[in-house]
């Protein structure tokens, strides 16, 4: 017997987008805990790996629904880009944490903690913005979150540049290579948050 859902497909899209956004926050919280409470590295990275797998699963569900749906709450291309961009944020968080484990780095310094804090704030903005996609009345408020995400991404760029300067001043070449990979992944996570904000902004302007 075929199974039918009483939940409209449009609502399912919104539900999954919000689940993905919440998963981003959890991954960012786990990264911040890793760098601020240095210890039990393997276990903490494993938690981030599990969150990365959970994010992949939600992304696959969104894309599968796109293929099955004739009607979507907003442009298919925007939904796909949004899903992949949110997934990428978690992927880069995972990459940063994984490099810390694989490279056996020492306790992270202030710039790493600064970037982890910015990533967390940016993901929280995404999670706060996502529910406002559901109704036209919330689209104007969506733009406010986009502005804040862009501001945080600019802060991350500044922290990243300062981190690189400090690396070359204070570390040997081996450590420079290790930390450069970590910084690149963390900065890329904020870039993808900005990509999410750009999709939000496009949806708001198209549908306001």
From TrEMBL:
It comes from Dehalogenimonas formicexedens. InterPro entries: PhoU-like_sf, Put_Phosphate_transp_reg, UPF0111_domain. Gene3D superfamilies: Phosphate transport system protein phou homolog 2, domain 2. It comes from the Bacteria. Belongs to the UPF0111 family. This is Phosphate transport regulator. Pfam families: PhoU_div. The lineage of its organism: Bacteria, Bacillati, Chloroflexota, Dehalococcoidia, Dehalococcoidales.
